[in-house]
Amino acid sequence: MVDISARERLRLLLGSGAFVLTGCGGGGNNPPSSGSIFQGGGGNPPPPPPPPPPPPPSGNTELVPGLLRDTFRNNFTVGTALSNQRVDAMDPSAQLALEQYSSITPEWELKPDVIQPEPGVYNFSEGDRVVDWALENGMEVRGHALVWHESMPAHFYQGTPVEIRSRLEEYVTTVVDYFRGRVTAWDVVNEVVSADVYRGADGIGPDRRSEMFNAIGSADYIDWAFRAARAADPAALLFISEYDTETQLKRDWLIEILRRLNSRGVPIDGVGHQFHFFLDTDPNQALAAIDAVDNEFLGLINHATEIDVSFYRDPGECWQSRTNCLADLGVAPPPEMLAQQARLLRDLFDGLVMRSSVESVSFWGVRDSDSWLNSSPVERTNYPLLFDRDAQPKPVFHAITDPNYEI
Ligand code: XIL
Question: 308 with 364: CB under 8 angstroms?
Fold first, then answer.
């Protein structure tokens, strides 16, 4: 059983499209002035009813029951990460992507270490291939990610804060302008919330002390990136992307950062919740992350951006020193674990469809063999996605597309 937020219940009682003004933090119904959805507050007439659900992307006009994209067509776009190598080979994952999904996130081709490996150099060829393939097949594109500490070459941090700012603004402007009209939504910043949650109250937050943070002495790079992206493509939706928002402390720090961005009028359209789960993740905690954004920043969009379910909840030392990691489960995982994965994502999707702020839901890969979790934190067989290594739908696929499927 999944929770439905009080606000969503009220929204449903008031009828679709009726928004309840927020108590704080902006939101509300004012049209964004600085491009930020945050310019809210103050009594306003109820907004007009929401427009009808968008028509299917041009390439996917036929409604086919049981397909992911059509099962949720009136709720949200369903997408997946996909890399050039799969597109070039038109491997089973690319073929399933064409059949089942209506949004593509290039897995690594739009990251800074690919686009700008050297100062002043721009390599768009990798991104162009997967972006244009998606568009040619009627799919939307989520751009990931303009700023991510795990993929920013050192030259981004060289020089004074003024030089770093100028270089970052030039990079974001150039990249967003180049893909203008082709990328629907950008993860402008990725994983900028402190990872110190494991120290609890002793944790230092809300901002990650990344190389960028340390190079300029603050998290102002977040503001710079959003403002440059908005200026470069006013039509693109701009997201702050984060993992572990299903963890209370991480979620609290994210909200604290959103409040700061709001107070500065930073243009932002939504939150991308990565939702990298384990089998024992509580789906209601993930839904609470959506509600936390809704409850304070009504009007912000929520995307689930990188869903997968790892079959290994390793101890910390496995992540820190690759020791004491759980043993490989082998080629065929235990059926009970597959059933647990199915129950988890059925409950998650039952909750997501009840939350109208959720406009896109993406998985981080198509087949289990695609997943980054087969090599992170260690080389090991994982089973995190909807399709098995033979491109067959798993119990979890049926659980979310067929309400009558018995897990
Ligand atoms: C991962 C890709 O899947 C890997 O292929 C790559 O080597 C490293 O990055 N969170 C994110 C994604 O935001 O960008 C990461 O993607 C997975 C974790």
Answer: yes
